[in-house]
From TrEMBL:
PROSITE patterns: HIS_KIN. It comes from the Bacteria. Residues 351-574 form the Histidine kinase domain. It comes from Trichlorobacter ammonificans. Its EC number is 2.7.13.3. It is found in: Cell membrane. The keyword Transport does not apply. This is histidine kinase.
Length: 577
């Protein structure tokens, strides 16, 4: 693995840079999101303060108006004046009240008294809103007359927009409601009282117009809102919101809008509700976040100033480290390869010695027969020829053994066509004596040539390694000792060869590591842990070659077995026409 890393060090450096850059980008984005979240939290806190201040002012104003109106009811017998339709008496009482509001800088724009049937007995209003009011009463007064209780809320039915409070007029003698009183307040009062809250912010009021086509109380589309005509809000703020309204989502707590080079966070979530809880309008607040955006670029530039030198230093250290340790790693790989060859050579000598014992024994018997018959005077030409032929057969057999095992350690310098079927059959012939001695049956079901590109004897050496590895495991069990070799072709000419044994399988914790060097399932005294590692190296020499291990069951001649399965996969050559 180190060898692969070192031979692709440029790729590693590029990947390191990309990962570092991605990490830098991710940290920057996350930090920006958190900063934006903090900014939103701050903005939401400001909005919450505005909302609470607004609600508190509305509540206090309602209490003061209620106490004031009830005191007038009590001190002036307003119920009797309404019951008697005494308009002059009502004017005498409420004209000073209206003037008193003005004197106290409370912008009351409407003061109305009606009887129980809704007829207007007294009305005092701002000259700017006199038109279109003749004989009409607001939804607040209608609600008071219908439900006989005090209510407050924002109205926009026949006046531009105002905060309306309605009070029932009760006859204390009979307990009956004889009429109702309405006090309408210009919303500029709240801007006047809460001006300190809006300092540094842009703000405007919009009214929901349900008279427009398709606009209902539940509809929050932009087309159903209009700016109020009379307001003490700065005209530049009204113009600002008129320009950005298409970018504002009325259904969202916050919307980000851009005006030229400036960025704003707009909140349309403060609602003005009518007496029956329906939305009558909205209060728009815009927080200028241009400086926040600029700071983010400053933070980004600062990070880049630290990131770029750091990543250059990191890549330099990585590159120098690769160059410095490449010789060490290459030397380790060379030593590992040498150990692999030595281990293979040691095993080869052991197997040669084992397979030579029988022919050597036969040669010894032939020499002894010749000597014995010569002493007894019974050595004739026929017997001599028979013993010489027997000796030559065994010598030839031993020579073939040397050639076959030597081929396992020899590999060509260039890739060429190699045949899976022939390689497996040669491998089986090499290991057959040791397999027969250990009562191991090899079932080879590769019945047709399968060609691929590789080095000479690669497939034979790989097959021998896998067979001997399976032999070592099978020798540790009792019962059926079987090795099944099968071959199947999949899509795109991919061939999968399976070497299955009946030894019970590889321990699960070693299943994914068996191809690493020095990892072995045998006792340390019996195994080097290099056999399957060599198989992996050989497999990678084949076209699209790879090898893996798994545990799986299989059936052979009606008997079910379970054990390790080493799978080899490569691309076969297309058949020649």
């Amino acid at each position: 693995m180190w060898h692969l890393v070192l031979t692709n060090k440029n790729i590693v450096i590029v990947i390191t840079f990309m990962l570092s850059f991605c990490l830098f980008t991710a940290i920057t984005v996350v930090d920006y999101i958190y900063r934006l979240s903090d900014y939103r939290f701050y903005s939401k806190s400001v909005f919450s303060m505005i909302d609470q201040s607004f609600k508190s002012e509305v509540e206090q104003l309602s209490k003061r108006k209620t106490n004031y109106m009830k005191a007038i009811f009590r001190d002036n017998d307003i119920a009797g004046m309404v019951r008697d339709n005494n308009v002059e008496a009502l004017k005498k009482v409420y004209d000073p009240v209206y003037a008193n509001f003005r004197h106290r800088l409370v912008p009351v724009i409407l003061l109305t008294v009606v009887d129980a049937q809704g007829r207007v007995l007294y009305r005092k209003s701002d000259m700017a809103v006199d038109q279109g009011m003749e004989g009409r009463i607001s939804g607040t007064l209608k609600h008071v007359l219908e439900h006989k209780r005090q209510v407050s809320g924002f109205e926009s039915d026949f006046l531009p927009f105002w905060y309306d409070s309605g009070f029932p007029i009760i006859d204390t003698k009979t307990g009956q409601m004889v009429g109702a009183l309405e006090v309408g307040l210009d919303p500029e009062w709240f801007q006047f009282k809460l001006g300190w809250v809006f300092e540094g912010l842009r703000s405007a009021m919009v009214v929901k117009d349900t008279t427009l086509q398709g606009c209902t109380p539940e509809n929050t589309t932009l087309a159903c809102y209009r700016f109020i005509e009379k307001t003490v809000l700065p005209l530049k703020d009204v113009q600002f919101f008129s320009d950005v309204m298409p970018q504002v989502a009325m259904s969202s707590d916050f919307s980000e809008v851009t005006v030229g080079q400036e960025h704003f966070l707009v909140s349309p979530s403060l609602r003005f509700n009518s007496h029956d809880g329906q939305e009558a309008g909205r209060f728009l607040v815009a927080y200028n976040m241009t400086s926040f955006k600029k700071k983010q670029w400053v933070y980004l530039y600062t990070r880049l100033m630290f990131f770029l030198p750091a990543i250059v230093m990191l890549l330099t250290v990585i590159y120098i480290g690769f160059r410095k340790h490449e010789k060490i790693i290459n030397e380790k790989n060379r030593q590992l390869a040498q150990k692999s060859k030595n281990a293979a050579l040691g095993e080869m000598i052991g197997y040669i010695g084992h397979q030579w014992r029988q022919p050597l024994h036969t040669l010894s018997l032939a020499v002894q027969n010749i000597e014995l018959h010569s002493r007894l005077g019974q050595l004739d030409e026929a017997l001599l020829r028979q013993q010489v032929d027997l000796a030559n057969q065994n010598i030839s057999y031993m020579s073939h053994i040397i050639d076959d095992w030597r081929a396992l350690l020899m590999s060509g310098s260039s890739r060429q066509e190699i045949d899976l079927q022939a390689s497996v059959e040669r491998a089986i012939s090499v290991v057959r004596p040791i397999m027969e001695q250990n009562r191991i049956t090899i079932e080879n079901r590769i019945s047709a040539p399968v060609l691929t590109m590789g080095f000479v004897n690669d497939l034979m050496q790989l097959s021998v390694n896998l067979l001997l590895n399976a032999k070592d495991q099978l020798c540790m069990i009792e019962g059926g000792r079987v090795i099944l070799i099968t071959c199947s072709e999949e899509n795109d000419r991919m061939v999968t060869v399976r070497f299955q044994d009946s030894a019970g399988g590889i321990p699960q914790h070693l299943l994914k590591r068996v191809f690493e060097p020095y990892v072995t399932t045998k006792d340390k005294a019996d195994g080097t842990g290099l056999g399957l590692y060599l198989c992996q190296q050989i497999a990678e020499n084949l076209d699209n070659g790879k090898v893996w291990a798994e545990n799986s069951p299989f059936e052979l001649n009606g008997t079910h077995y379970f054990g390790a399965c080493i799978c080899l996969q490569f691309s076969r050559l297309a058949a020649k026409e």
